């Protein structure tokens, strides 16, 4: 994992709807680009930095979609690191990205029940929130074990460092609305493009520091109209193999550092 510096930009940034980002990802995926693995590697780098600042066991909350898979692939890197502490995984849905789960378990991550984790919630120093991402959902409220474990975390006297995967779970990626049961992040690692919900509504309150991972989507995003432009400070990072915006004629003055 890389410990190199990333670039920080404070400017008016274009932010996009979830539909626009998915549309930009589609041709890149059709070309065979491993966007998920690029995203997961950058996520693992950020989570590793958080864990160095707060050493101890890491908890990974995993939903059913690609967001959960990103978290699992990142967990596999974190569990296999030479300085790895314990990495525990909670599956909040019956459905899971099987290949990502198998990779994480093979690397040493341990699957735990939500009830088991809640009784030992004080152990964890860093939490990866991979419950919900930008998938199409009629209702983004957390329910069942997802809601229970978020409530356990929020009830802690001293909250762990929360790293949100793409967006904080429960935050609408387009308008920034959120239910009461949403896990405020210290850091949000968002992939490919800034999501509109991170700069609207409750987004700025819930997202913490935003890391934008460059997945080389700029040529495709030029075909979409931003949902909003807003002043925001971004820490920009890249991932090995992903072409940067600068390499593809991206915005002048924006430096992207490969993770």
Biggest β-sheet strands, sense, barrel: 10 strands, mixed
Terminal Cα separation, in Å?
7 Å
Weakly predicted, low-confidence segments: 245-259
Helix content: 25-40%
CATH class: Alpha Beta
What characteristic shape results from the CA principal axes?
globular
- The CATH topology is Rossmann fold
Please state the second-level CATH architecture.
3-Layer(aba) Sandwich
General description of the model:
The structure is a single chain. The protein has helices at 18-30, 35-53, 66-80, 98-107, 114-119, 144-155, 203-207, 218-221, and strands at residues 7-16, 58-62, 87-91, 110-112, 126-130, 161-165, 187-191, 194-195, 209-213, 228-237. By secondary structure, the chain is an alpha/beta fold. It has a single domain (7-237), classed as Rossmann fold, CATH 3.40.50. It has a 10-stranded mixed β-sheet with strand order 4-3-2-5-6-7-9-10-1-8. Helix 3 packs parallel to helix 4 (98-107). The chain starts with 6 loop residues before the first strand and ends in a 22-residue tail after the last strand. Residues 245-259 have low confidence and may be disordered.
């Amino acid at each position: 994992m890389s410990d190199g510096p990333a670039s920080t930009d404070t400017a008016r940034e274009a932010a996009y709807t979830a539909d626009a980002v998915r549309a930009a990802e589609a041709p890149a995926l059709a070309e065979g680009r491993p966007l998920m693995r690029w995203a997961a590697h950058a996520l693992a780098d950020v989570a590793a930095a958080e864990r160095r600042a707060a050493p101890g066991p890491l908890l990974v909350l995993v939903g059913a979609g690609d967001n959960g898979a990103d978290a699992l692939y990142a967990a596999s890197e974190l569990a296999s690191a030479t300085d790895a502490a314990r990495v525990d995984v909670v599956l909040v849905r019956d459905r899971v990205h099987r290949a990502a789960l198998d990779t994480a378990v093979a690397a040493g991550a341990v699957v735990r029940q939500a009830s088991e984790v809640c009784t030992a919630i004080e152990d964890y120093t860093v939490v990866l929130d991979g419950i919900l991402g930008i998938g199409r959902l009629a209702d983004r409220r957390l329910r069942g074990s997802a809601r229970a474990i978020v409530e356990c975390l929020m009830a802690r006297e001293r909250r762990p460092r929360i790293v949100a995967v793409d967006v904080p779970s429960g935050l609408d990626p387009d308008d920034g609305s959120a239910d009461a049961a949403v896990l405020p992040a210290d850091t949000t690692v968002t992939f490919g493009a800034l999501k509109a919900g991170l700069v609207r509504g409750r987004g700025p309150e819930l997202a913490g520091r935003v890391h934008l991972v460059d997945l080389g989507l700029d040529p495709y995003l030029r075909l979409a109209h931003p949902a909003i432009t807003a002043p925001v400070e971004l820490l920009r990072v890249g991932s090995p193999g992903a072409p940067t915006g600068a390499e593809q004629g991206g915005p002048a003055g924006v430096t992207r550092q490969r993770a």
